[in-house]
Amino acid sequence: MITTTRFLPAQIYRPRSLLVGTVFGCAAAFMFFLSVVAVYVRERARARHEAMEWFAEGTVELGPSGFVFWTLVLSVFTVQWAVQAINAEDRVNAYVALALTTLFGVAIFNQLWFIINDTGFALAASNAEFLFFVINGTFIVFLIAAVLFITFTFVRALAGQFGPKRAEAVSAAALFWHTVVLMWAVVYFLVYINK
Amino acid sequence: MTMTDSATATGTLPSDPESLVSPTSAASAASAPSVSFESPVASEVGGVFDALTTTDHKRIGRLWLRSSLLMLLAVAVVGVLLRIEDINSSPDDIFAGTNNYFQFFGLYRLGMVLLVVLPLFVGLATVVVPMQVGATNIAFPRAAHGAAWLFMIGAGITVVAVLAGGGWGALDGVSPSEADAIALTLVGTALLIGAIVVASVCVATTVVSLRTPGMNLLRVPLFAWSMLVAAAVWLLTLPLALGNLVLIYFDLRGGPGEFGNIEGSDAVFAQLGWLIEQPQIYALAIPVLGVFGQVAAVVAKRRHAQHAAAMALIGFFGLLSVGGWSQPWFQGDSHDEQFVFVVFGLSVALPVLGSVAAVAATFARPGADAAAALEPSLASLERTKKLNLAGLLSVHGLAAFAAVLVLLAATVAGLVRVVQPWDLGGRTTVTAVMNLVWFAALLAGIAGIWFWAPKIAGVLLPGGLGRSAIFNIALGAVLLGGADFVSGFFGAGALAYQYSAASVSLVSVPSNENLVEVMNACAAVGALLIVLGVLAVVAAWLKPQGNTETLSDNPFGGLTLEWATPSPPPLGNFLDAPARVVSEVPLLDSVNDTEEDS
Amino acid sequence: MFTTGFKFFFGLGMALITGAVFYGYTTGGNHLGPLSMGWKGGVGEHLGYSMLFGLAFVSMSVAMFLVSFRDADPAAQAHYMGVEQIPTNSLVTASFWPVVGAFGVGAMAIGLVLHTAVFVAGLVLCAVVAVEWLMDAWSDRATGDREANRVLRNRIMAPIEIPVLGAGIVALGVLAISRILLAASKLGAVVVAGVVSVVILALAVLLVSRPRVNKNLLSATVLAVAVAVLAGGVVATVTGERDFEHHEIDLESNNPESVEAHQGE
Fold it and tell me: Where residue B134 sits, what CATH number does that domain have?
């Protein structure tokens, strides 16, 4: 029978590998997202140039998307709180922060679902409505990925695997979360505010 | 006392080249932490189980290399058929209709990028780069393994879907099953791009975060650096193609029909056209400069005279190949006149020329250190500028030089293509650039495979087949690229087919039809030569020469850390942790210390 | 101060920002538009400008991360960890899950085109892979002893994996065989059922009679089945669904196919 007293200490891994890999992964993810947004702004500029209507008046509301944005801003603090708490070996705070971040993610998903249904858009109706769907849909996929990343990190944190100088997975999850927040900041400004 | 210690004590260079094979020293080994290299699961079982569960970067790299060679063979044959079809204006001889021609046309062009060249370099990098930076494995080996399989699945889906009537659009209308096959082609293409992006992240992370002590980024070998630059460019730009595919797919499945219009149109293919046009096409060739710089220095038996400058030039070439922004489908022909596009096109030959100049400086430099240290029989070359002809005529030497010359031709053709008065946009000049870049990359791939074969598979590859491959592929590339380059000046269209609602014909009408016919025949011969070259590569791969038992760890006199591993390298690559690196040529570090001491 | 990695990515970013500004002004941008991202004036052609600016932004962000990690130099990483020298060991235990994950993603891709059920199956496979990968990531770092890590992992996962895998194989078998039975004639169905029963019994006897199953054989079988499922999906996509049941046959019709189908039963 194996007892914990006989275990060798875990091997030291390169602490920056996961972070560097996540930086590159986030770069690729952001460029993917940006390519769809760039097509959106290009098509919108063309519609404007041809004096065509983009979104029908009153379809894309600023309020709900603002809730998403401000919730995401809150989550930026909670996810960094988790990183800070792990580094300070404050497990209780880390669990609370990770749980809150996950909760915010689920709430944002709910809100986005409402936004998409509320617009009453149809995929085939126009370029504007099609691109609106694709951009928001792509964002939802990244949001789900980020929530899963945070959740898995939460599970490993519960297993007691992180601590001071062993928090790279939490930092990587936070980095991906920040990238997703940045994605929404771009969408919020270009699609919702600057209609 | 180790061999290195004794050399230091006597002030002489070690006479045994094998002594330089392992840069580990007793002192460094003592201070280095012990690392476990064994993988009990792999060593106990082997075979299919190991292939499916491996986390060893060499096995993973070989998966990529084998897949890309298989795809290369298939795609090269398609290339010949297309070129034969191009000789006359009827699309019915081989492909039974313009639409079929169009599907294979798309498979050939996007296949050369996504199925052949990118995976070839990813495979080479997956095997070699970790060893070059002194790492025991690639970063995220499980992700790297998953990416290799995802690539194979994506390749299978894409090829089967195209053969079943799919492709990147349809010129002659679509049935519901063809629409499904086209959708399948799109998702297959997306899987290919996703796999290459994941593998790029693994390679880039390895170079950045898994370097051995003392190896700062300025000291990484040129191939590893070129792969960091290439991986960075690929992972920044290929996701844009993924964005294109997402828009096309969802439009096809119920959108307004603006992006996913597959019927009677080549709009879907055109949206991905930027992947095979300059400047993005040059992104495929970034590792060419890395292979060239590194192989040339080994061939010269000297350390690279301008290592830092060569790194800067590779970075500059990488910058000039960032081209996700120049998407002709969105911008039409007007992108040919854009200032930035023209500046990128005019500048891209400079880093290639610079790399050639840096290697020329290496050859011109008196060869003392590497020659004497690694091969006493070459002592006569010391402090002289004599050429090492045997090295130059080796397969890796010939292939590296052929690759850089073909790349230089490509960049010059690209430079001519952006000169406005000639108005060569949309002509076969574009195809010339594309073909020359592909085959420059392929030649560099051959140089790499022959050069690193002892580390890839623990073998040496036959020189005769290698030289035959280089001759055929280089000549084929010149014929293909040259013919298209000339045809472009006489109005031959790049797309090779023209269509409208009323009629579909195979070729556009050039101003001098006879000349273009001759050029098309030359191109067909070139494509055939390339197939012969590819067959030689495959034959060499299947039947290597020599005995693994007697294979030297460093048969070519390499100066970088991969040559400090046994051939073939074991799990974990190094028998002992590498000594602290103090220069860009770790195998000479101890020799240099000795020289300074004496 | 400025590391090599930083210099490359920052230089790339600066060059692309310059490119974006030139691009903007040479494609119709005016006033301060290309300089201010469209705040004061037009940026010119939107797609190229956005891409160039986006590439520059991302490249510079990567540069900032790299310089903050000191290019992740071994010395910097060792310093961070408070050790003299940091090992490069990143060997992880062998695992089936990357390959299974690749097949899961492949199934999702095919399912996106073919049928929602295939997509969901791929999604489930990916979810399983995610959980297993998580457990592998945890167990690899649980202790410094590989064998202990393996035992720890199996102690947690085996009670879940074995029943779930067994149930999955039974469900898949039942589903696949039921399709065959439905497609075959009445007599054929009896024959197929008999043959399948004998094969299952023979396999079970073979398995229990051997002390150890050849992992290579098992791996090859799993791979072959996975490839067959994916290939079947592709073929089914291309050929479309086959109508293999004729519940309502118009006997009064002169359609020979209907009559033959009826006689066949």
Answer: 1.20.210.10
Strand ranges in C200-245 using DSSP code E only, listed in sequence order? none
Q: How many domains does chain B have?
A: 1
Q: What is the C-alpha end-to-end distance of chain A, expressed in Å?
A: 65
- ipTM, 2 dp: 0.93
Cα–Cα distance list, B296 to A6, B34, B232, B288 (Å) = 53, 35, 24, 12
Nearest to C3 among B54, B184, B217 (CB): B217
Taking only residues 71 to 100 of chain C, the set having a beta carbon closer than 8 angstroms to any beta carbon of chain A reads: 72, 76-77, 80-83, 86-90
Mean confidence (pLDDT) of chain C: 80
* C-beta atoms of C71 and B160 within 8 A: no
The neighbour count for residue C195, using CB atoms within 10 Å, is 10
Within a domain: B482: no
Among the partner-chain residues A12, A39, A130, the one whose CB lies closest to the CB of B256 is A130
In a domain, B536, yes or no: no
Q: Which of B49, B183, B343 sits opposite C219 (nearest CB)?
A: B49
Query: Three-class SS of residue B580?
Result: coil
Q: Is residue B110 part of a domain?
A: yes
Instruction: Write out the residues of chain A at the interface with chain B, using a CB-CB cutoff of 8 A.
Output: 11-12, 14, 16-17, 20-21, 24-25, 27-29, 31-36, 39, 42, 123-127, 130-131, 133-134, 137-138
Q: How many helices (H) and strands (E) does chain B have?
A: 23, 2
Q: Give yes or no for B38 touching A (CB within 8 A).
A: no
Q: What is the pTM of this model?
A: 0.88
How confident is residue B18, by pLDDT bands cut at 50, 70 and 90? Answer: very low
Domain ranges of chain A: 18-50+62-193
Asked if the model's pLDDT at residue B377 lies above 50, the reply is no
Distance from chain centroid for Cα C131: 13
Task: Classify residue B548: in a domain, yes or no.
Answer: no
What pLDDT digit, counting tens, does each position of B20-69 carry? Answer: 444 443 333 333 333 433 433 344 455 777 888 899 999 999 999 999 99
- Residue A158 corresponds to which tokens in the numbers above? 């519960």
Name the residue range of residue B143's domain: 51-276
CA distance C238 to chain A (A): 25
For the stretch B427-482, pLDDT in tens is 888 899 999 999 999 999 999 999 999 999 989 999 999 999 999 999 999 999 99
CATH architecture of A18-50+62-193: Up-down Bundle (1.20)
Looking at chain B, the whole-number percentage of residues with pLDDT higher than 70 is 82
